[in-house]
Amino acid sequence: MTAETSQTLDRGLRVLKLLADTDHGLTVTELSTRLGVNRTVVYRLLATLEQHALVRRDIGGRARVGLGVLRLGRQVHPLVREAALPALRSLAEDIGATAHLTLVDGTEALAVAVVEPTWTDYHVAYRAGFRHPLDRGAAGRAILAARRGETDSPGYALTHGELEAGASGAAAPLLGVLGIEGSVGVVMLTDTIPDRVGPRVMEAAKEVADALR
C-alpha cells in the first residue's frame, strides 16, 4: 500500500478476488482469516459490495461473487452469451428443443442466452431475461444440486410442468467455472423426456464450461 491508494478499496477488491477463486463461496470467518482483518471489517466490506450486487450471500451465509460483476463491463455479458452460443445451437438443433444458458442472480435463475431450433414445427418460447426461483424448473434445480454437491444424482435435473403447463425441462450444471453458478438445459413440450436428453445436456454444459474458462 502507498499513500496514494485506498486501503478499504484494496480490501474490497481482495474480497472479490478471493470469492472469484472459489466455487463454493467463503464465510465471514474464512474471509477474515485470509484478509488478516477482524470480522467487523469483513461485514462492512460485504454489505457495501452487496449494495452494488458485486457480492451475494446464500441462505447458509456464504459469500459469493454476484452478477453485478458481469454488469460492470457492458461487453462481459455479451461475451458470456457469445461463448455459450455454439454449444446451445448444437444442442437445440440436435434435440429439437429450446436450449438455454441460465445463471444465478441472487435467489433467482436468470436465462442469459436462449437458442430455438430451426427445424421443428413448434417449440417452447423461452426468452433471455426470463427469471424464476432457483427451486423451480430444471435449470435452477440443476444449479442447487451442484451447490449441494449431490453425487447420487445422474448429473442432470428433469422437471415437468413447474414453470409452464405441459412443458418439461432438462438441465445440467456448469462445473469448474470460477465465480459463475449456472446451468445449460432445454425446455420442450412433452410429458416424458427422451432418455438421451439428460446426457446430451450434460455434454453441452461441459462444452459451455470449457468455453468460459
UniProtKB/TrEMBL annotation:
Residue ranges constituting the HTH iclR-type domain according to the UniProt record: 6-67
Recorded coiled-coil stretches: none
InterPro entries per UniProt: ArsR-like_HTH (IPR011991), GAF-like_dom_sf (IPR029016), HTH_MetabolicPath_Reg (IPR050707), Tscrpt_reg_IclR_C (IPR014757), Tscrpt_reg_IclR_N (IPR005471), WH-like_DNA-bd_sf (IPR036388), WH_DNA-bd_sf (IPR036390)
IclR-ED domain boundaries: 68-213
Keyword Lyase attributed: no
Gene3D superfamilies membership: 3.30.450.40, Winged helix-like DNA-binding domain superfamily/Winged helix DNA-binding domain
UniProt keyword Transcription, yes or no: yes
Keywords noted in UniProt: DNA-binding, Transcription, Transcription regulation
Protein name per UniProt: Helix-turn-helix domain-containing protein
Organism, scientific name: Streptomyces roseoverticillatus
